[in-house]
Here is the input.
Amino acid sequence: MIGAALLIGFALLMAGLGRVAGPWQAPPTDVVAVRHLTFTDRPDGSVIVQDVDAGFQVDVFAPGTNNFARGILRALARQRRLQGVGPEQPFRLARLADGRLTLDDPATGERIDLGSFGSTNTADFVRLLR
Here is the structure.
């Protein structure tokens, strides 16, 4: 009985500390490569990827391809709609010095650490940095 009570107490203490401390985030590192990108849906289901700084088209996601990237972009677009932000402001795709790849939405403050989804899923975004 005493052991069970101690275990429950410990679990409650850790849950409380987790709430107070907030989520863990990796320490920031220097950015070694960055691109500011917009993603535009086309009526045929393709997505045009545009580099805003350089002013040229980087890639086209053909209909039915790049499903991971499309899912991430849908999630970020949903956050923009909830906050009343349009698609005009570009996303920031960055490779950090420690090798991590992040996709930031400056319009909403959202940041996605793409490396946590595995190299197969992030390949679409790695290609956009080249």
Q: What stands out?
A: The mean pLDDT is 89. The chain has three helices and six strands. The first helix runs from residue 2 to 21. The beta strands are 31-41, 47-51, 56-61, 91-96, 101-105, 110-113.
